[in-house]
Specification:
Strand order of the largest sheet: 1-2-4-3
Low-confidence stretches: 11-24
Shape: globular
Order of helices and strands: HHHHEEHEE
Helix content: 40-55%
Largest sheet: 4 strands, antiparallel
Oligomer: single chain
Number of strands: 4
Strand content: 15-25%
Length: 174
């Protein structure tokens, strides 16, 4: 990567970090920018994936902190992973245009399906692997912020890959 590209990536990183942590850019605006970010970030593929995942992770943690009082009031203590996944899907559907569903949920694992993924808008069928790293990071960040422990999120189907839906397997260890 050239010096100029490194500088661009650094500036983009700093600007987005400030925007996310200070609520300068609403999530829906970032969603609209995601395809452009994915295609134009001057980073190697694996760096881009890690970068977008880290942004999503930070946003997921921030969203959980902001809505923590609501989730805790609505749930029966103690909050379980299963409860959190139901709240996550309801909340994410309420604040976005995405149609998000739980395909499967257990005490330590879930499958989240996004039928109308805004992150893939304009990227449908263009890639050979999933691209929704931001969304994967957001699920992991919100889960870990709410429950502690470790959340591993893997996107197994992606509209950008040509699949009908974006599908995420979530595994949680307390």
């Amino acid at each position: 990567m050239s010096r100029v590209d490194k500088l661009k990536a650094s500036l983009i990183t700093k600007a987005l970090r400030v925007a996310i942590t200070e609520d300068v850019v609403p999530a829906r605006v970032l969603r609209a920018l995601y395809p452009m970010l994915y295609e134009t970030l001057p980073l190697k593929e694996e760096e881009k994936e890690g970068y977008l995942y880290a942004l999503g992770y930070q946003m997921g943690r921030k969203m959980e902190e902001e809505f923590e009082h609501i989730v805790w009031k609505m749930s029966k203590p103690p909050l379980t992973f299963k409860d959190l996944m139901y709240f996550f899907v309801k909340g994410a559907t309420a604040v976005s245009a995405d149609k998000i569903e739980l395909e499967e949920v257990r005490e330590d694992a879930a499958v989240v399906v996004n039928r109308t993924c805004a992150y893939c808008w304009g990227l449908e069928g263009k890639y050979s692997k999933p691209v929704c790293f931001y969304y994967s990071g957001a699920i992991a960040g919100a889960t870990e912020a709410a429950l502690g422990g470790t959340a591993v999120v893997e996107e197994v189907d992606c509209k950008a890959k040509g699949n009908e839906v974006c599908r995420f397997k979530v595994r949680y260890k307390p």
